[in-house]
Amino acid sequence: MSPRRDPEPSPAPVAKRVPTERTHHGDTVVDEYAWLAGKDDPETIAYLTAENAYTEKRTAHLADLRGQLFEETRRRTQETDLSVPARKGGYWYYTRTVEGQQYGVHCRRAVRDRETDPPISLDGAPLDGEEVLLDGNLLAEGHDFFALGAFDVSPDGRWLAYSTDFSGDERFTLRVKDLTTGELLPDEVPDTFYGTAWSADASVLFYVTVDDAWRPNRVWRHTLGTPSSEDVVVHQEDDERFWVGVELTRSEKFVLIDIHSKVTSEVLVIPAANPTGTPASVAPRRQGVEYTVEHHGHRFLILHNDGAEDFALAYTSADAPGDWVPLIEHSPGTRLEAVDAFENHLVVTLRTNGLTGLRVLPIGGGDRHDIDFPEPLYSVGLGSNPEYRTRQVRLGYTSLVTPDSVYDYDLVTRQMVLRRQKPVLPGPDGRPYDATAYEQHRDWALADDGTRVPISLVCRTGTPRDGSAPCVIYGYGSYEASMDPWFSVARLSLLDRGVIFAVAHIRGGGELGRRWYDQGKLLAKKNTFTDFVACARHLVKAGWTASDRLVARGASAGGLLMGAVANLAPDAFAGIVAQVPFVDALTSILDPSLPLTVTEWEEWGNPLDDPEVYAYMKSYTPYENVRAVDYPAILAVTSLNDTRVLYHEPAKWIARLRATAPQGDYLLKTEMGAGHGGPSGRYDAWREEAFINAWILDRLGRA
């Protein structure tokens, strides 16, 4: 099972400066590699470039395999494709992809007489009468990176507000296009964030900007046809724990300004017909109380956790918000996650027993009911539903073996129609995709404190349970984010080579409700790491795999998880993939000038002011705890322009690993023109995934 290794030793990092010292709560820490934070320093860029060259050299023997994996993903993907159109007003809106092109083409087509079902193009060809609103490929010309932030058509269908990012730092330039003439207005706003909202008459556009720490803190009002220098701040959030967002309700009656920290929220409303009006609070913020607002007729629907750990649904008057009248009482173990309002129905997104679900509440009579789904493991949620007056809603459904599927569900008759399942074309063996060739399982590990932790698994049908199969175990475990089952074309290349894919639903995520999240944050954060190790040990004990056939993978906060378990249980894994990993967490959380730091204190704790938090974080943060032990092979992948997890965290981590445990095999790969999500074009993203999967297969002896 031993993978091929290049005997050449790893290059030692060049410590070009005197190490930096910091002292907090009487503790002095020396950071030998703090100089790598100098993004504009030519020596930093030279170092990262040299690391990339070294990684390419060390993985050169995998070039053919990378090409195979990329080609398998490409062959299985219908490259020229078209999404199921969603109706809004007199148009069907959809996105097309074209073979050979990296980005989507955003389009619409007028609704024709008596046309109720969405027009479908099975071969991905343009619809007859199509109007191209925005072609991402044209916008991306001349740029190595391209991403859309806003894509917002005005209520009357005349204007398109869109924003672009060409570096990956998630700072967008906002523009407005006249869809009747195809011309761009002179209106242009640089350095905006996600989130826009139109006024009812489409004369005003609301948008968001960030502060010096790149925290979204201001909502602005822009009047079409005027220079951005005349824009007005509608709300400025000065409490650094909170960030802001803006949106238009589905009813198009109110502009919502969402203000929230990790544990507290407040919503301000502006009538969309009176965009210059003063924002009014639906309910003043109270520490620890979270709520969201959805407009429905004469009322605001309130999804909240006031005395309801897993949230409850209530309503209050839209004219004079006050007391909250219950609609769905709190039910421990059933986490209410969202409510969507339509004229005659409400649809509540929830999760129970670790699975997502949808509950329909008819207005004015009729039985409440949950929508049933057949598979034991799946993920379901509402899709694009821009129409308020409708009896039909769009659903998205997938599982570990079922490709992404789009359904329309009739809220009255309860009939569900499959509009389209994402095609999976024949693989290298020429056979059509067959879901029965794969099987999915739910297993449970026992954590150190006796807690049962769910694991989702997928593998080829008939994969042996004698420990001989290689396995990849994936984890995240932060921010109440749930790793619900998802389908991946690229993953098929692993499964077809006999690899099992497992997802550890560890504490810190939201799979089993709010308590599951609370038990994996702040001073309980180590549960996230010990849960993951328990899942890895269980897979071995249960015969799914063996420790020398197990590779761990995680990204962002899941990259923190990877670094922590490398220190906690280096013997449990044959390899670790850490993507944009938050591995120098203590250093970052100690610096309130960094993007997102202050807003993160309610997730991790505030080590600046609290010595207990400082000591606790220092005891687990990966960079602080590198030891002279036998680590598994580690591949760290990062992006130079990432503003969420700065590139120097994994760069410093790999440098310290090499210096402290030099017998190990550590690689660093930095995308020099991308952000937190990695390469932006779909072909570039497939190549990145092929690079990672080739490294994984090499570690598993399946290269």
From TrEMBL:
Which ranges carry the Peptidase S9 prolyl oligopeptidase catalytic domain?
Answer: 486-701
Q: Which Gene3D superfamilies match?
A: alpha/beta hydrolase, Prolyl oligopeptidase, N-terminal domain
Question: What is the protein's name according to its record?
Answer: S9 family peptidase
Keywords (A to Z) from UniProt: Hydrolase, Protease, Serine protease
Q: Which superkingdom does the taxonomy of this entry point to?
A: Bacteria
PANTHER family in alphabetical order: PROLYL ENDOPEPTIDASE-LIKE, PROTEASE FAMILY S9A OLIGOPEPTIDASE
Organism whose genome encodes this protein: Micromonospora thermarum
Chain intervals for the UniProt region annotation (Disordered): 1-26
Under the heading Pfam families, the entry gives:
Peptidase_S9 (PF00326), Peptidase_S9_N (PF02897)
InterPro entries recorded:
AB_hydrolase_fold, Pept_S9A_N, Peptidase_S9_cat, Peptidase_S9A, Serine_Peptidase_S9A
Q: Where is the Peptidase S9A N-terminal domain?
A: 13-419
**Family stated for the protein in its record:** Belongs to the peptidase S9A family.
